[in-house]
Amino acid sequence: MQSRITNGDTTLISEIPEVKIFPPYVYKSWWDHRRYLRLVRNVKAAYPYAKLAGIKLKDIDARLASMQSDRQRKDFIEYIEKELRGEFEEALRGLTITQGGILIKLIYRETGNTTYEVLKDIKGNFSAGFWQTVARIFGNNLKSKYDPYDEDVMIELIINMIEAGQL
Question: Which is more confident, 19 or 160?
Fold first, then answer.
């Protein structure tokens, strides 16, 4: 706490942390409420991985930028891919198709690039095209963008509530 003395009187000064208050959402039907609860569960499952992906991608980009030769980059990418597979493959395989689609959008939210662009930059066109085909078979699209003002407004609300500690 800080204090300020004015005319012999001491006043304590403190910053109060911001508190976000979200009004209760009014559902049109019982099914809408169930759909919302399912979306909350899916976002809670995918959001931590999206945050980690954003952090790891920034680190990988910084390391790749400092490398001089293409051989160094290729060896580093192979090493990182093996490390990430060992760390996350089993957990990510446990996600549902819907949670995977949400993860694709949240990676765009964290990085500003679609998952397809990230793969294309790191692994190349062929690999990105292969994984895009696999994603399309399962009903997802690696080129999906996150739109917090229209299509993904509920996901954004849920994320804000998670970050505020209300979910």
Answer: 160
